[in-house]
Amino acid sequence: MAHSDMDVDHTAHGQSMGLLRVLGPAHVWALGVGIVLVGEYMGWNFAVGKGGAYAALIACWFAGVLYSCVAMIDSEVTSTVAAAGGQYTQAKHIIGPLMAFNVGLYLVFAYTMLEAGNAITLGFLVDTVAGMTGHEGGLDQRPFIVLAIMFLAWLNYRGVLATLTFNLVITAIAFVAIITIFLATSPLLGAGEMLHKDLMSGQASLPYGWLGILAAMHFGLWYYLGIEGTTQAAEEVRSPARSLPFGTLAGIMTLLIAATLTWYVCAGLMPWEYLGDGVNGAVAPLFSAAQITGSSALVWLLGIGTLFATLASANGCINDASRAWFSMGRDHYLPAWFGAVHPVYRTPYRAIIFLVPIALIFALGAPLDQVITFSILSGLLGYTFMPINMIMFRKKWPLDTIKRGYEHPLHPLPAISLMALCSVTYFAVFLGYGTQLIAMIGFYIVVSLWFHFWRYRFVKRADQFTMPWPRPRGY
Amino acid sequence: MARYIPPVQSKLGQVIDVIVLVVLSVGALFVPLWLGLAGSAKLPVPVENPTWESLGQNPVMVAQWNKLGFPDAASAHDMITARYDYSFSWISLAVMVIVIVGYFVMMIRFSDIEYREVIAEKFGEK
Known about the structure:
The complex is a heterodimer.
Chain A (H helix, E strand, L loop, with lengths): L24 H12 L1 H4 L4 H6 L1 H26 L8 H8 L2 H36 L9 H17 L1 H26 L10 H4 L9 H12 L19 H28 L4 H4 L9 H9 L2 H35 L18 H17 L2 H29 L16 H41 L22
Helix pairs in contact in A: 1-8, 1-11, 1-14, 4-10, 4-11, 4-16, 4-17, 5-6, 5-16, 6-7, 6-14, 6-15, 6-16, 7-14, 7-15, 8-11, 8-14, 10-17, 13-14, 14-15, 16-17
Chain B lengths: L10 H24 L24 H9 L5 H9 L8 H34 L3
């Protein structure tokens, strides 16, 4: 694939305008970590509610293994399929159109719901800060939710380089805030305020027993959900074969460190019942941890960290969801109107604008845990697709047929591990949120039938296969 | 293989397709909420005249509750006693497995039918 500054897209439907190739590995890191780091600032603590603090830590590490498999598999395939749409484009070339359509929807809904969750948290934070500074009676959070989403959509509309440079800066600050509160509260440098032994004794150790550990895997995914979004930037990265694996793998390492430190700080300062209640208790657990230390400096730092993490995540989510929606429009999986690129800013502007009201509907109308569950379920379906995709990729194009920018080791062990961990997570979601699980799968079954029997008639056949690959084995 | 020429979709048809997708996706989240089926049964288990001891809280935990703005056991009662109900029937578990596996099997089979057309048109019949 050529890596010119202005790749021109002639393959889709005669458009002569492509996305700009301006991003480096640091932007890829910022996109992946920027989307996910908010998972340490909110949402992961529902895992504590489902199984207790120890269960949340075990879930954190098992989910870390799951996402390491995701990152390895994704890096190999993406270093070869470097096109906007990420896993959607992978599915289109490796499994088939219907799978690609579903994967595109997984991406759009996982990111749009995550964006809605970020906006809800931002509204809560503004309300809390207003209360701390003397405002009485509570604030109406809705204007702040609407403004945040509109501002970030505008930023995305104006250009990808500014968007992801903005993400790089605020993500780095949010990550430093986590390191700072860890150092300030741990015995290493700080006052050694950690109370794990007393807060996790007796019934508080494993309140639901071993079943709770399984159940905690549901929200354990939230520590890392979205890291696979790095592949969405494939068409805008200067050197995809090098930058995408580097940025993605550096991102998962960053998140493993941040997730463990976050658990350590929060579980050592708050009773599990409070920490695990992300609706009435610790909505923003790191911010709550800072409040409990009594340090004004930490409260401000973690308040800013929470604000920046939510903005960085929502920003990256708008970027990724719009690329997936744009790619499906370009291929006529959705109306082709969405496949347009802005003539000046070179962004998928129609997709960006269209997804704004969708995010607002969920941010203003649904509770946080439901929005997060919807996002996790879409992500989980996407992770279930990945091992199938990887096995088919190696089968249809063995290593000697296509040059990969990165070859992941120990195949098929990561794919099998990923499938096993996904199965455990389905069971974890089933424990407590089975209705949403069935509703969501029902939705995907209905739209799959709609696509196969109706929408696919508008799609050109051979034009979908745009990679310069040989004929797949077995076809 | 003859090249497939897709029909041109009218603007109204495109709008209807988008509306269908939006209605389905919004419905998938909001219908369970409206029907009261969403979320889990995480409900408080009432304790008469609660004290920190009766709620299983040791002095360190109590100190942290106080810092978090819960001055007495009654104020933290609902949060401390709320528990998920993880009881389930094996039949409902089996239904879930069948639905998920069935969904992926259906998708891979339909995808394969479509994919063979794509490959045949791209690379020619074997």
